[in-house]
Structure formats: structure tokens, C-alpha cells
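Late entry, heme C complex.
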Amino acid sequence: MRKNSVMAQRLPRARTCAGLGLVLALVAAACFEFAGAAEPTAAAEVAPCAACHGAHGEGMAAAHVPRLAGQAADYLQKQLDNYADGTRDNPIMANFAKALSEPQRGKLAARYASMSAPHLPEATSIDARGLARGHQLAYQGDETKRVQACNGCHGPDGRGVPHAAPYLAGQSAEYLAGALKAFQQETRKNDAGQLMLTVAQRLNDADIAAVTGYFASLGASALR
Ligand code: HEC
Ligand code: HEC
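Prediction complete; structure with ligand written out below:
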């Protein structure tokens, strides 16, 4: 992890391209598995997803693939519905979501919700000042920018609140930053009452780096 983040600092471009190539290779592999899936067993059920989301739902930071393990089932199912109906725009996930029936989405969501992948805190590339700023946004928000505390909705230490908001702790900084930018740019407009659009549009790039680096740095103890 640490080695990865040092490389990322020195070679941002190389890493982005490698990440893209990785995702494309995974799409091909996953589509192949998807087409070949017969009677689903527990492992076979998540096989097409595991190529990217990992065997235990741990995700893959370098390719911006989120962790799914232990995330609430209703949240996961809602995201699959939203990829399919286009309120959350992502070409890769739209293809997978559209290929699933409603009961299949429900089953997969429940399966990932029940997983508890080991979690290693991400070696952070932000400095102490950034971490402090991230902590401040998480716990207090920023009154001058009218940003509410993230944890007010996302739960203590960003652990998530069932039926209300997903966990942020333990997600990679790469994925979280991508999600915040998607809210800002309105390619993700699936948040009820545009709560996250409002929050995200009041954050600048430095805030996003700080708050996502902070949540990514939280260890397994932050999750249940
Ligand atoms: C080729 C790689 C790939 C495969 C295969 C894949 N995903 Fe994803 N998945 C992604 C990426 C990348 C994202 C983040 C997209 C974004 O930023 O919106 C994602 C996002 C998600 C999310 C949203 C999570 C969140 O925290 O909001 C869910 C749920 C999900 N995937 C479920 C699945 C399921 C179920 C399958 C199998 C049917 C699957 N994915 C297969 C790459 C993949
Ligand atoms: C008023 C409540 C509220 C506040 C405050 C809030 N969020 Fe959220 N956030 C939500 C909800 C609800 C969702 C899920 C939206 C959906 O259904 O996709 C969400 C989703 C997210 C996601 C996407 C997670 C994923 O797995 O894809 C990120 C990232 C995020 N919030 C970051 C933040 C940060 C950082 C802050 C603080 C600066 C914050 N949120 C403050 C309610 C809130």
C-alpha cells in the first residue's frame, strides 16, 4: 500500500493509464464469466463482480473500484437500480446493472452486505494539515462554507447509518474523490433531496483531497 502511494506521487500519469488498462482487462474477464454463469451457487453469484470488487468485496483502490463488503443492502441495491436507470452515470456498472433482474440485484446486494472483508487502512498521501482539515469536515463541517459535518449523516467515524447513508471509512480516497466529483458535476444525481450535491459543490479540490484522505486513512476499527 505504502509503496503504491509513493509510486503514485512520482508517476501520476503512468498510474492512471495502468488503472485504465486494468479496468478494461477486468471488464473483458468479467463479461466472459458473466456469459458463462449457469446455476448460481454462493461463489458463482458474485463471480462476475469479484473480478473488480474482489473475492470478499474489498474493492480495488487503484482502479477506483469501491469496497462493497458490509455496506447496507438497501444502499447497494439502490445503486444498482440507479446505474440501470441512469441517475448514476457509469458505463461499466450500467452494463452490469442492466443485465441483472430485480431479484438478482437484491440477492447480490444482500450477499455483499453480509461480507466482512479485511480492511487495511490506506497509506495516505496527505500531510498532517490535510488530515486535520479532513477530520474537521468529518466532525464539525465548515460553517463559513455552510458545509455540514459528514458524520452527522454518515455516522460516527463515517461508519455508515443503516437506511440513511453509506459508510465512508475504509473506502479508498480515489473512489471517494471520484464520487464527490460525480455529485459536483451532476453525473451522479441519485441523492434524495440533492443532499450530497449541495455538500459536494461547497467543497474545493483541497477539501476533497483532505476529507477523502482522512476517511481512507481510518482503519478496520472504524468499520463494525
Ligand atoms: C469491470 C469492473 C467491475 C465489475 C466487473 C463490477 N463492478 Fe461494480 N463498480 C465498478 C466501479 C469502477 C464502480 C464505481 C463506479 C462509479 O464511480 O460510479 C463500481 C460501483 C459499484 C457499486 C456502487 C457502490 C457504492 O459504494 O456506491 C455497486 C453496488 C456495485 N459496483 C456492484 C457490482 C455488482 C453487484 C457487480 C456484479 C454484477 C459489479 N459491481 C461488477 C467496477 C466493476
Ligand atoms: C445531510 C446528510 C449528508 C451529509 C451532511 C453528508 N452526506 Fe454524503 N451522502 C449522504 C447520502 C444520503 C448518501 C447516499 C446517496 C445515494 O443514495 O446514493 C451520501 C453519499 C456520499 C458518498 C458516496 C459514497 C459511495 O459509496 O458511493 C460520498 C463520497 C459522500 N457522501 C461523502 C460525504 C462527505 C465527504 C461529507 C462531508 C463533507 C458528506 N458526505 C456529508 C448524506 C450526507
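Residues 66, 78, 137, 147-148, 150, 152-154, 165-166, 168, 176, 179-180, 190-191, 195-196, 199, 211 surround heme C (ligand 2) (CB under 6 Å). Will revisit in the morning.
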